[in-house]
Every structure is written in structure tokens, then in C-alpha cells.
Amino acid sequence: MRYAKNSASRQVTSAFRRNAFGVSRRRFATETLTPPKKKPRIVRRIVLATTALTGTFYVGSAFLAFNNTDYYDFFSEHVPLGQSMLEYGEANHWDTMTVHSAVDYTVRTATSIKDFIVEKVNGAPTSVKEVKERVEKSAHDAKVTTIRTVEASKERVKDVAAHVRTNVQKEEDKLTGKAAAIAKHQSEQLVEGLSDLVRKAEEALAVKPDTPASDSDTPSKSPGTPSESATSRQHDVYEAPLPVGFEPPPGFSLPPPPKKEPPPPKYAELPLVAPAVSKLASSEPIISHLAGTIDNLASFLKSNPEAASRVTDVLDLAKNDLSTLAQRIESAKEEERKGLEAKLDEQTREYTLKLLETEMEAQDRLDNQEEEFRKLFDLRQSQLIQTYRQKLEEELKTQTDLINERLKNEVVAQGIELQRRWIREIKMRVEEERGGRLAKIDELSAQLKRIERVALDNSAYLDENIRVHALWSAIRGLSTSALSSPVRKPFREELRVVRHIAAAREDPVVAAALETLEASEVPDVGVEPFADLASWYTTSVAPKVSNVALVPDQDAGLLSHLASHLLSSFRFKRHGLVEGQDVLSVLSRAEYYLNEKDLDSAARELNQLKGTAKVLLHDWLEAARRRLEVEQALEVVHTQATLASLLVV
Amino acid sequence: MSSSKPVSSEDIIGQKYDRCLADFLVKTGVGFSVGVVASVILFKRRTFPIALSTGFGAGAAYADCDRSFNPARIPGTRIIPASPSPSGTAPDEHKHQV
After folding, report:
1. Where in or outside the cell is it found (chain A) (predicted)?
2. Could you state, in order of their start, the residue ranges of all structural domains in chain B?
3. Which distant-in-sequence residues (6+ apart) come within 8 Å of A54 by Cβ?
């Protein structure tokens, strides 16, 4: 875009310049045509005077300005073209010029002018000089523009560099030196490249004007003085731009010397026209011919000055030749002008292009560099930021870690303390609660246990009671059926019930007693009631035993029996508890015991009898013993039941 | 003895008396009748055979009765008490062959 814009502006400027060229060319062409023909001397004089006055004014002002700063300011600001004049003066080192150097310079200029005048005696067409002037001007313009652009670019570069430098300085101290060095280097390189370019351009420009000058050297006889001064001035002007490289690059002041060298040969060549032209003779035969005629004429005139009249032929010839030459020169001039113009245009274009390209390149490079620097700066900044952030983060992390750890420890310690306190509190509360509700609960549970125990005891007691009661009932039933019944009857059922109940209580004594009782056949048979036994004894057993009371224990025959039976009926009956071992006493005692309801003692008494009495008492004793057995067993069971009932309570 | 119903122990002596009487009667009657027959047939109506045979019968009955009362009294044998018997203990009877 920028390039396009630049190119557009360049084109515009070039076009404008070309137009200006065209206009000026036209004007100068007219001017070149007019002076020798029509215009009176007054105009020329006025022009000369004005030019001289303006030239002296400008030159003097420039010198004055260099010596006086106030005037410098005034001159540069208020006088038109003053600034450019000053610049030109500065370019030519006028400010440093001494009187001696000025004198030298003027002397040299004068000699050069003189030489130039001598050279241009034949009158080189002013147009050529004008063309040259124009060319030079354009070259100067181009140079100035290039310088300006270079300066501008340099300034820009400097600005950019300064900007970059400042930026970089701000960013990083390390980078600044490098960046500044790089920028300086870059700018120097650029300046050098530009100066080289300018030098090249100037060389090219310097060479170009020379060739037309050398071309126009040969026919320089006809032109008058006015143009000569201009040419000399132009020469001066032309010479001046060569050291234009007053800019920092030092190598630029070198080119002028080779350019200044050519003039001396010119001075040397001038006297001899033919040898100088001989080089061109091959291409321009007319010139060589003319040169030869001129030389001839000159020699002729030298030899005899008074024979000028005879020279007319030669002069006619020369005129013809000159007219043809003029025509040819005109055409050549035209061609040359055109070619030069084209070349100049081309060169200007080329150089401007190059300049712009370089400028662009430099700009691009600078931009790139700037971009790079910016990038680098950004990168560094970001890196620095990152590193610092990282550091900061690390620091923060460590700090936070430390703080967190401390906090954690504190929290843990506090938590432990709190927990301890809570535990203590909870313990206290629990103790209180325990002292309150839990104690109540304990009490209640203890009471419940007590009640339970009581209930269990009670139930056990009740069970025992029931069992004892059942046992008692069974025993009562058994005794009722076995002993107290009025008739003899079996009691196995009752005995079984009693045994069952007793077995539940697991009483070994009762079990043993009942077992012996059960093992016998007594329960099936039953026992005689006591009344029966007593009546049986008194009614049948006792009388019959008393009948055999006198029977001896052994060998008791019929007679003894009969005798006992008879005699016993005569004996006195004894009653009550009587002493004596005889049968009747025993019987009376048994009877007494039976009356006392003491079956056991009665049975014991009767059991002591022997012999026949005992045989007679056998059945009764058996019955009494059975009853006694049952009675004893029941007594044992009864005692156990009583014990159990006593234990229960 | 022949009765099926067991006799009570106190009635043993009376039973023996009954049986002895019955035996006596039977045996004396048998002897008397035998004597009568013999006197009539053999002795021409003499009285002594009648008395003799009745005596035999009565004697046999007595012997039987006595043996019933004291079964250990066997002719030719004599029971000697082993020791002066203590009271309250059953007498041990030892039979000695005479």
C-alpha cells in the first residue's frame, strides 16, 4: 500500500518534473533561439544585471549568513530560495571558507572561466549548456531529494532507533546496547547504502553531463559571452554538487577529485582542435574536415593576418560546413537531448525506484527489526513476567503452604484442644446425665432385676409350692387310700402319682423309699387297716395263741397240745403292761400296745415269741409288718415333703 | 390240708385237732367193725376180737395225730437241741439218727 502510494507520488512528482522540464526546455529553447537574433541589448543587459545582482546578493548573503547568525535566520526564513542557497553554501563548505581559500577559489574559478571561455570561444550552443544546467539541476534536485529522503529516512531510522532504544531501554538494559548497536549499524549501513547510491547517481549524472560537454566542445566557437558566464557558473554549480555528500558518510567527498581531474586535459587539448576531434573523425567526418579547415584558416591567418579577404572562399566553405554542422549538431543535439532526457528520466526513475526500494527495504528491515525487537521485547517481557509470576507464584505457594501448614497445625491443635474440651465437657455432661437419667435407668434396671429376681423367686417359690402342694396332696391321697381307708384296698395308682411328683423333685431319699415300696407286691394287695388288725388279734389270734401257750417249743406232741389247751383255759388272764417272758405276758403287752394303737411295739412284742405261738402268729405279724413298712415309707415321704415345704418357705 | 382255701396260721392247731378226731373215729370204727367181723366169723362171737381191733384202730389214729402235731418225731430218731436256746430266736433243729 505504502509502496503503491509512494510509487504514485513518485510518478506524480516525476511527471511534474517532466512537465517542468518540458516547459523550461521550451522556454530555454526559445531563449536560446532569441538572444542572437532579435532582442536588443537592453534586455540582455537587464537580465545580466539582475542575474549578477541576484547572484552577488545571494552569494554575499550566504557568506554573511554564515558569519552572522541573525542574518542567517533572516536569510533562511524571509528570503526566497535563501534556505536552498544556504544549504548549497554549506554543501560547498562556504561557511568554513577563508579569504585565502576564497581568493584561491575565485582565482581558480576565474582561470576555469577563462579556460572555459577560451574553450567555448567558438560558441557552444547555450542550449546545450542549458540542457546541461537543467540536467544538473535535475540531478541536483534528485540529489537533494535523495538527500532529503535519505535524511528523512535517516531521521526516521533515528527516530525508530531512538524509539526502539527507548523502548528497549525501558525493557531491558542489556538489550539496549545491542539494539542500539544494531540500529546504529543498520542506520549506518542504510546511510552508507544510500550514500553509495547517491554517489553512484552523482557519478552517473556527472558522467552524463560530461559527455555532452565533450560533444559540445568541438563546435564551441560561435556562442557569445553571456552564455559563457552562465556556463562557467553552471560549471561551478555543476562542480559544487559533487562534494554534496557533506553528510556523515566520509567516503562521499572522495569522488570529486577524479571529476576534477578531467578539466586539465581539456585545457591541454583545447589548443589542438584536430587531434581532439580525430577521435570522432571516424564517426563524424564533417567535423574532422571542419577542424582541418579551421586549422588551416587559423594557420593561414596566423601566417598572414592581412589576407583576410582571401579567406572568403575558405570561410564560405567553412560556412557551408558549419551550416551543415549546425544542422547536424541541431539534430544531434535534439537526439542527444531526447536521449539524455530519456536517460535522465530513466535514471531518475531508476534511482528513485532504487531509492524507494532501498528506503522501503530499510523501512521493511527497520520494521522487521522493530517487529523483532518488539517481539523480542514482548517475549522477554512475557518471559520476565512469566518468571516473575512464577517466582511470585512459588513464593505465594510457599507462603500459602507455610501459612496453610501453620493454620493446619493451629487448627489441628485447636481441634485437639477443642476436642479435649468437648470430650471433657461431654464426659461431664455424660456424668451428669449418668448422675441423672442413666442413674435412674440403672436404678430402674436394678429394680427391674430385683423384681425379676423376685418374680423368678416367686415363680420358683410358687412352682415349688405347687409341687409341694401336689406332693402333699398325693401323699395325703396315698395315705388316705393305703392307711386310713376302712377296708383293705390296693394303692398302686396313688403310689405312682406320688412317685411321679417325687421324681420331679429328684429326692433320693423319697425315691429310694418309694422304690422299695413299689418293688414289693404290697401296693397291689394293699394293707390291713389298723382296726382290722387289732380286732383280728384280739378276737382270733390272742385266744388261740394263749391256748398253745404251754406247748413246749420242741417235741410238742398231741398230748402236750391237749394239755396246754386244757390248762390254759384255767389260767388267769393278765392285762396291761405286765412283766414276764412267757407267752401270756407277751400277749397281754401286745394287746396293751394295740390298745395304745402302737402296732409297731405290739409287733415287736409278738415277734419275740417262739415255737408254736410264733407259727400261729405268722399271718398276723406278716400283715402288721406290711402295714408298718407302708407306714414307714409314707412317713419318710411325709418328712421329705415337710422338709421341702419348710425349705420353700 | 385238702381244703383249697389257705388257712390262717392261728387256725392250724384247730384244724389238726379236727383231722385227728376224724381220723380217730374212722380208724376206731374200722377196727371195731373188723373185730366184729372177726369175732363173728372166726371167734364164734367172742368179744375180744372186737375190742382188739378197735384198739388197733384207735392206736393207729393216735399215732398219726401225734405225727401231725410233731412231724419231726419219727420213730428211731431223736432231736437234740444244739445249745441252750436263747430267747427270741428260732430253734435250730438238728436231727440225729439214733
Report:
1. Mitochondrion inner membrane
2. 10-72
3. none
